[in-house]
Design brief:
By secondary structure, this protein is mainly alpha-helical. The protein has a domain at 78-168. It is 73% helix and 0% strand. It has six helices and no strands. The chain is flat and about 60 Å long. The chain starts with a helix and ends in a 5-residue tail after the last helix. The relative contact order is 0.07.
Length: 168
């Protein structure tokens, strides 16, 4: 969807797409604005971060209101317990997300499309999250963990095969 939106906006303002072989036109204010709107290393990240913060605050407010309506207390944040692990998880996820978006941007620049890089990134996030749950939180073991490992292996093979494809 991002690629389609970028192409549509670029065409609307007669901007030269990144993968075009035509010589680039002189930058216009509209094309500069389009480039910044889709700059996932700049305003894209800021907008995403502000949206995530807003969504978290809305969930906190609704959880507090629901608890208050039932006559209970608002959810406790446990800041002393969660400050370091929460900040570490958020920072690591942000670095991973930033890196994944950058990889997708490089894929788009190489004319392979972002569908492959984004799908691989999401699959890898799923595998790492599952491993974390099994190894750190001991959410499952035995036969369940073996089945999960088989499915994770299948996913890894599918990721490698997908990497060999070229989006047209």
């Amino acid at each position: 969807m991002i690629s389609l939106g970028k192409r549509a906006e670029s065409a609307k303002y007669h901007c030269n797409p990144a993968n075009s072989t035509a010589p680039p036109p002189p930058p216009t204010p509209d094309c500069t604005r389009v480039a910044e709107q889709f700059n996932n290393l700049g305003s894209w990240m800021v907008t995403f971060g502000l949206g995530a913060l807003a969504a978290a605050l809305v969930l906190l407010v609704f959880s507090s209101l629901a608890a208050w309506a039932r006559g209970g207390r608002a959810p406790r944040l446990h800041l002393r317990v969660m400050a370091l692990p929460g900040m570490a998880a958020g920072l690591l996820w942000s670095v991973g997300n930033f890196s994944g978006l950058y990889a997708a941007k490089l894929e788009m620049a190489s004319d392979h499309g972002d569908a492959v890089a984004m799908a691989q990134m999401m699959a890898l996030q799923l595998i790492v999250s599952g491993l974390w749950g099994i190894l750190y939180y001991h959410e499952m073991g035995g036969r369940q963990a073996q089945v999960w490992c088989g499915m994770a292996g299948f996913t890894l093979v599918a990721m490698v095969l997908l990497g060999g494809e070229k989006a047209e």
